[in-house]
Amino acid sequence: MKSCLLCLRADRPMTREHVFAHWLVRRVHGGRLIASNASRGGTLSTTAPVRIAGVTAAVCAECNAGWMSTLEDSFRRAVFARPQVGTLQAADRITLSRWFTKTAVLLAHARGGALVDAAQGPQLGCRHAR
Ligand SMILES: [Zn+2]
User: Fold this and answer.
1) 2-6, 34-38, 112-116: range with lowest mean pLDDT
2) How far, in Å, is the centroid of ligand 1 from the Cα of 44?
3) CA of 123 to the centre of ligand 1 (A)
4) Could you point out which of 56, 62, 89, 101 has its C-alpha 20 to 30 Å from the C-alpha of 13?
5) Tens digit of pLDDT for each residue in 2-28?
6) 112 C-alpha to center of ligand 1: Å?
7) CA dist 44 to 35, 38, 48, 110, 121, Å?
8) Residue 16 near residue 57 (C-beta atoms within 8 A)
9) Ligand 1 centroid vs 128 CA: distance in angstroms?
10) What is the pTM of this model?
11) Close Cβ partners of 92 (under 8 Å, ≥ 6 residues apart)
12) Residues, beta carbon < 5 Å, ion ligand 1
């Protein structure tokens, strides 16, 4: 059985998480943006280019619907819910840091790579930052 790359548990149902959520793709008018047309190692792929809306990574249902969903909501509020004037508040800096890290880890995984050591995955969902 496949384990979740974020919490490392293998006893949970797995889901396909969209690395770039549909709301975000729509918000930035990114429907035509291409994630990459190069395979791992930088050689050109013969497969069709993948749009960012179609990039997914396998994570467990509990991570997906739990801390990742909460992080996505926090990210949306931090970036889009209010006018961005002045210094970022500390809480928003943490949210943005976690969101970009989570996204980079999933993106690397979706391309067959690994951005962090597997043992570091659970730290992304650290309950102290929820
Ligand atoms: Zn998980």
Assistant:
1) 34-38
2) 32
3) 11
4) 101
5) 889 899 999 999 999 999 999 999 999
6) 18
7) 13, 4, 11, 16, 29
8) yes
9) 17
10) 0.81
11) 78
12) 4, 6-7, 60, 63
In this structure, what DSSP letter does residue 42 have? S
CA of 53 to the centre of ligand 1 (A): 21
CA of 57 to the centre of ligand 1 (A): 11
The tokens of 79 are what? 């970036």
Other CB atoms within a 10 A radius of the CB of residue 119 amount to 8
**CB of 75 closer than 8 Å to CB of 96:** yes
pLDDT value of position 129:
40
Which residues touch 112 (CB under 8 Å, ≥6 apart)? 39, 40
Q: What separation in Å is there between the alpha carbon of 95 and the centre of ligand 1?
A: 19
